Amino acid sequence: MASPLHKQVFSLVTGFCLDDQAVTLPAYRVRVRDGWVEVGPVTGSPDEERRYT
């Protein structure tokens, strides 16, 4: 994903800026289940695996 305003490129998987490692965005696990989009906790959070499996 690219920010046209700040000219930074981010990974959709990790949220890390590919141009500046000091900049990150929250990244969420998502899935489609029975026609519904489910959004899990922030990637890397302690509760991620326990609540979203």
How would you describe the shape? elongated
N-to-C SSE series? Answer: EEEEH
Average pLDDT, rounded to a whole number, is: 80
Low-confidence stretches: 48-53
Rg from alpha-carbon coordinates: 13 Å
Report the helical percentage: under 10%
Percentage of residues in DSSP E strands: 25-35%
User: Which strand order do you get reading across the main beta sheet?
Assistant: 1-2
Number of individual domains: 1
Separation of termini? Answer: 26 Å
Number of strands: 4
Number of DSSP helices? 1
**In terms of structural class, how would the helical and strand content be classed?**
mainly beta
Give a short account of the largest sheet.
Answer: 2 strands, antiparallel
